[in-house]
Amino acid sequence: MLFSRFKNQLPTPEEALGGRPEPAFAVPERHTVLGNPLLGPYPEGLEIADFGLGCFWGAERKFWQTEGVWTTLVGYQGGHTPNPTYEEVCSGHTGHTEAVRVVYDPAVVPYTSLLKLFWESHDPTQGFRQGNDVGTQYRSAIYTHSPAQQQAAEASRDAYRTVLHNSGYTDITTEILPADTTRPFYPAEAYHQQYLDKNPGGYCGIGGTGVKLSAPSETNWGRSCPTGIAPAPDVTEQ
């Protein structure tokens, strides 16, 4: 019963697992498709975006296939347990969601374009699930790295909410919160990184609503959002 409750309700910090001071596993050095470092150092001028949109295997592929993306890695974010493992996250006792970290060149792909891809690649109205994947670790989330990213994410949410409502969908449940020290990104185990490159026939639970968000250049949310907003640090936050 306790396991079931935490699949549908986030634990409090007091209820969450204690975790550990250091990661329980090593992370590969380079991206298997793009060839660039996963944890940095990242070239000057690149920026970071963090998204949760269901099972991170298929979600990561969506982003590494995007022109202007320099590297991607999957991990756990938005919870309480430091340095969690996959099994701990899936138990619901850490409070994390499965997340994709996207390191990108804003001169090639602006943050607003990544937001459009994010919204259209999943159903953000489902709460603690995504399709047949049920649990708090599958919730929709955007973790922002600057006030400008926060503004852009919220504006895009409001724009997509309108078109979803017009298509008969319920309200968006996506959490949009700063990726600050209270919400660090913890890289996932090696076998999760670029999983669908290593396993081309592997499971992919990603599927959008079919409802499109207008291109950023055609919307007010796109016009008001700068592209140069969140410099990528040399190492992944932990």
Name the average pLDDT.
91
Structural class of the helix and strand makeup? alpha+beta
**Global Rg:** 17 Å
Largest sheet: 6 strands, mixed
Beta-strand content bin: 15-25%
Helix count? 7
Q: What low-confidence regions span 5 or more consecutive residues with pLDDT below 50?
A: 224-231, 234-238
DSSP summary, beta strand count: 8
Write the layout of secondary structure elements.
Elements: H1 2-5, E1 47-53, H2 56-64, E2 69-77, H3 86-90, E3 97-104, H4 111-120, E4 129-130, E5 133-134, E6 140-144, H5 147-166, E7 175-178, E8 186-187, H6 195-198, H7 220-223
Parallel strand pairs: 6-7
Antiparallel strand pairs: 1-3, 1-6, 2-3, 2-8, 4-5
Word description of this protein:
With 238 residues, this protein is an alpha+beta fold. It is built from seven helices and eight strands. The protein has helices spanning 2-5, 56-64, 86-90, 111-120, 147-166, 195-198, 220-223, and strands at residues 47-53, 69-77, 97-104, 129-130, 133-134, 140-144, 175-178, 186-187. The chain has a six-stranded mixed beta sheet with strand order 7-6-1-3-2-8, covered by helices on one side. It has a two-stranded antiparallel sheet with strand order 4-5. Strand 4 and strand 5 (133-134) form a beta hairpin. The longest helix has 20 residues, at 147-166. The protein is globular and about 45 Å long. 49% of the residues are buried. Residues 224-231 and 234-238 have low confidence and may be disordered.
